[in-house]
Amino acid sequence: MAEKTFTLEELSQFDGENGHPAYVAVDGVVYDLSNIPAWAGGKHHGLTAGKDHAEAILKAPHGKSVLAKLPVVGKLV
């Protein structure tokens, strides 16, 4: 199966609200946060799912180290 690609507009639909999955992009890779309790409802420490958070993750205490534990669902184009 071909890898799914997302535009920013398409990614915005995956906001974790109203039963939608919670996806975020970092460095062009789209991750699924739907099963991460800290992202319940698509929100986490003032951030919302459905967006590109490449800059925000650099400011987080955990940095990019958490990304290896997340399912990859596609690429941001």
Distance between the termini: 18 Å
In helices, the fraction of residues equals 10-25%
CATH topology name? Flavocytochrome B2, Chain A, domain 1
Mean pLDDT: 94
Q: What characterizes the major β-sheet?
A: 4 strands, mixed
Q: What class do helices, strands and sheet pairing give?
A: alpha+beta
Share of β-strand residues: 25-35%
Low-pLDDT windows of residues = none
- Domain count: the total is 1
Let me know the CATH homologous superfamily: Cytochrome b5-like heme/steroid binding domain
Order of helices and strands: EHEEEEHE
InterPro entries: Cyt_B5-like_heme/steroid-bd, Cyt_B5-like_heme/steroid_sf
Domain Cytochrome b5 heme-binding: 6-77
Pfam family, one: Cyt-b5
Protein name: Cytochrome b5
Which SSEs are present, and which pair or pack?
Layout: E1 4-6, H1 8-11, E2 23-26, E3 29-32, E4 43-44, E5 47-48, H2 54-59, E6 72-76
Parallel strand pairs: 1-6
Antiparallel strand pairs: 2-3, 3-6, 4-5
Describe the protein's architecture and organization:
This protein is an alpha+beta fold. The chain has a single domain (4-76), classed as Flavocytochrome B2, Chain A, domain 1, CATH 3.10.120. It has helices at residues 8-11, 54-59, and strands spanning 4-6, 23-26, 29-32, 43-44, 47-48, 72-76. The strands form two sheets. A four-stranded mixed β-sheet has the order 1-6-3-2. The chain has a two-stranded antiparallel sheet with strand order 4-5. The chain starts with a strand and ends with a strand.
